[in-house]
Amino acid sequence: MTDRTDVDRIRDAVDLVALIGEHVPLRPKGREHVGLCPFHDDHTPSLAVVTHKGNAFYKCHACAAAGDAYNFVQDYHKMTFPEALKFLADRTGITLSRGRNVPRTSTRPAGSELRRANAVAASFYREVLAGDPRGATARTMVCDRGIDDDTARQFMIGAAPDQWESLAPHAARQDVSIAALVGAGLLKPRSGGNGHYDTFRNRLIFPICDELGRPVAFGGRALDPDDEPKYLNSPESPVFHKSRTLYGLHLAKRAVIDTRQVIVTEGYTDVVACHQAGLPNVVATLGTSLTTDHVRILTRLCEEVVLVFDGDEAGRRAADRAVALFFAEPIDVKICVLPEGLDPADLLALTDGVERFRAAVDAATDALEYKVSRLQVELRAARGHAGRQRSLAKLLAELAGLGFDRLPGVRKRPVIAQLADLLKVRIEDIEQAMPRGRSEPPRSRVARTDADTEHSVETTALWSEQADVPPARRLAERELLGVLIYQPSLRHQLGGEEPGEPGEPDVMASVLEPQRFMDPALRRVAEAVWTWLARDDSFTVQQLMAALDDPGLRNLAGELYIEAECRLEAGEQTPAEFLRDRFNALRRLDSRELYRRDLDAYRRSRDTSGDGALEKLLEQRRKQGYIPEALPTRGRT
Ligand SMILES: [Zn+2]
């Protein structure tokens, strides 16, 4: 578990206006900053960033977007919470306390040192390519390959000189330690134990970046045709895991999100060529096939992965793997075989290359279909019902080996339907041929949502049966909750010690309990607020937002804060008066509603329960603290 105080400390240290301002132009408006919301198609600046009075949250007035720095980073960069935490910790220079407890050998450089070594190396290689005499051969290759200056800059393409020791002296001037350069795989110790030499020599350099565009490794293409290997990658390091890294993702991300599709090629030169040709949703694996880790990263960004291969044979080899990935994660995996065995860079260099590339991507075959089509030949050859059954069983056994059996029911059913369609057999035939006696599939997401709903039904108390909330009531609830979010110190007023009010300790607190809120959304925000109020603790809006997992509720919390601020800034009432006022309004509404119900119940039961039932009810209500004068006198039935 992450240390809670780390989370708060980092959140406090983030300059939210600066963070959001890096992605969205913001301008000051009053005490807030406003800008175009990046989470919907915004034309009027709808995004407000509130950073005064110790707050730091953003809220869109048009869509559901709202939250703190973590929410922004998670939503904008499609990161998980731990990723966002790490990202913001790095940004604010705060060391996570969990990391501090992990003993680290003193000889091994920390991730931040490795990243700095990589950054320094990237700018060194870049300078060599840009104008250094040692970069002449590399410049010729860049030119021959048709890579323009903008693209080279975007991908930070560089050149390693044809020298054994060129990086180390440069890095030393920038205070980068040899240990960090070795740790990052940029230097290698000489076999005699005497000094170090450059890993990348006489190569065109393609920095490999993480999702945020920081170089974590390098790919080097040999400039001399006789040099081996033709392509050389940095070794894995604490900041570089090739099974989790996709080349070009930091540049492709926005386009992948927008087109909901990612095209995965096999090499970095393919990615560079595609981006330059106006195909920005292209990434590459780094000498591995696509892993489930890659797919998990991509699932957060899009719904369709198109794997590009330069020939049928390569596509066929990858088909099983692609089907297995499709079974592992809910994402469509397609196989695209480029015409005439051309790789993307070669194809795009042709006059009609872009069109042909696009056409090939559009014609990409679903991985399962690709796999099944190969087995169809066999199925067709099988004669008679029994023969077909045997072929089907064989196919299903093969699919089971790729993970079909582990698919949850909700995903299995459409696959079975798809198989039936592809194979031109009935769904029952497939079900019949399925291996028997399998264990239950893991609980699906749908099942979990059901459980969540049950839970929230259970916790909704007093007003759960009420579908329509009267407008006056909703307003009173909103304002009451808003003022408590705006100024949590008002919780001290809940004991009824404010001058001019009857001292009814606990009454106010009990009337304000979350279950008193009729509006379901307000009730859920109130539930979160009460986790602090119940232990007489203060909270900030950003902490409240962090406690709300629904973006709509986070937005609501921000809205309540801003509304309360507007009301109180008007200065007609003090916050305490405002709270009292709304509290009494709510009590009256509560009393009226309860009395109406009590009366209905009394009328219904009058014949059987005899006299005194209404009095008993009223007595009970009085004990519960409802305002007596709001109750009409008896005998009007
Ligand atoms: Zn918005």
Structural class estimated from helices and strands: alpha+beta
Bound molecules: zinc ion
In total, how many beta strands?
Answer: 16
Helicity level: 40-55%
- β-strand percent reads 5-15%
**Low-pLDDT segments:** 99-106, 437-466, 496-505, 628-637
- Oligomerization: single chain
Give the helix tally.
Answer: 28
Main attributes?
637 residues; single chain; alpha+beta; binds zinc ion; five-stranded mixed sheet; 52% helix; globular; 28 helices; five-stranded antiparallel sheet
Description:
- This protein has a five-stranded antiparallel beta sheet with strand order 1-2-3-4-5, sandwiched between helices.
- The longest helix is centred in the last third of the chain and has 35 residues.
- Helices cover 52% and strands 11% of the residues.
- By secondary structure, it is α+β, with helices and mostly antiparallel strands.
- The two termini are 60 Å apart.
- The chain has 28 helices and 16 strands.
- It is globular and about 100 Å long.
- The relative contact order is 0.06.
- The C terminus is likely disordered.
Short description:
With 637 residues, this protein is an alpha+beta fold.
SSE diagram, text form:
Layout: H1 4-13, H2 16-21, E1 26-29, E2 32-35, E3 47-50, E4 57-60, E5 66-67, H3 69-77, H4 81-92, H5 97-101, H6 111-131, H7 136-144, H8 149-154, E6 158-160, H9 167-173, H10 178-183, E7 187-189, E8 196-198, E9 203-209, E10 215-222, E11 231-233, H11 249-259, E12 261-265, H12 268-276, E13 282-284, H13 292-299, E14 304-309, H14 312-328, E15 332-337, H15 344-349, H16 353-362, E16 365-366, H17 367-381, H18 384-401, H19 409-423, H20 427-433, H21 445-459, H22 471-486, H23 507-511, H24 520-533, H25 541-547, H26 551-569, H27 575-609, H28 613-624
Parallel strand pairs: 12-13, 12-14, 14-15
Antiparallel strand pairs: 1-2, 2-3, 3-4, 4-5, 6-9, 7-8, 9-10, 10-11, 15-16
Residues 37, 39-40, 42, 46, 60, 62-63, 65 line the site of zinc ion.
